[in-house]
Amino acid sequence: MKLLGAVLVALSLLLPGAWASEASRTCIFQTLSEADHEFCRGDLEIIYPEVGDVSCSYIPKCHEYRRKLSEEWGQPRIRYPWAKKNKKYVLVMVDPDAPNRENPRLRFWRHWLVTDILGSDLRVGKIKGKVLTDYNRPKPARYSGYHRYQFRLYRQSQHQTISLSSEEQQSLGTWDLKDFVEDFHLGHPVAATQFLTKNCKD
User: How many other C-beta atoms can be found within 10 angstroms of the C-beta atom of residue 127?
Assistant: First the structure.
């Protein structure tokens, strides 16, 4: 038995890749249900370190990905390969399930809002623009189930200035996204996607 243990230890030192691939096989990124999947369109990529593009998937608990998403990772890279180089865009990230999906009285909780993003930057995954709401990590409350974190990308008119009211600036929750879109004539998103996650301790 000791000999077998020694052989396994030796193998782990000599072949770390083999053990890593074994571990990675147990970490599965599930795609969303058909109803949630319908929200995703336009090839918008949401890229976090270690996991890559999480568009239209559940964040798994394995490898502490949910904890890292809530406590460590900063804003993701947002890539939209079909962006028109000389056009401007608005990026919105919201949680429509605050405080939970059954009773979303605080929808659409605003997690990130950036305007004046050049299409040339979007095509390579850079978000440079006017930040109206700093990126807030997804932090679902315990026992609140899965939350959808939605990313919506809108085309912005060339000489348009977009802003938040003082009331909107003071509160991230119960944001009227529909009114915001209508006020600035943003129309329908040119691309949208979402991922689902829940509290890492659940």
Answer: 19
Task: Give the model confidence (pLDDT) of 33-43 as tens digits.
Answer: 999 999 999 99
53-57 long-range Cβ contacts below 8 angstroms, 24+ apart: 54/29, 54/195, 55/193, 55/194, 55/195, 56/31, 56/32, 56/193, 56/194, 56/195, 57/29, 57/30, 57/31, 57/32, 57/195, 57/196
- pLDDT (0 to 100) of residue 29: 82
Coil, helix or strand for 131? strand
* Burial category of 165 from C-beta neighbours within 10 Å (exposed 0-12, middle 13-18, buried 19 and up): exposed
Alpha-carbon distance of 45 to 51, in angstroms, equals: 12
CATH number of the domain encompassing residue 93:
3.90.280.10
Q: Report the number of distinct structural domains present in the chain.
A: 1
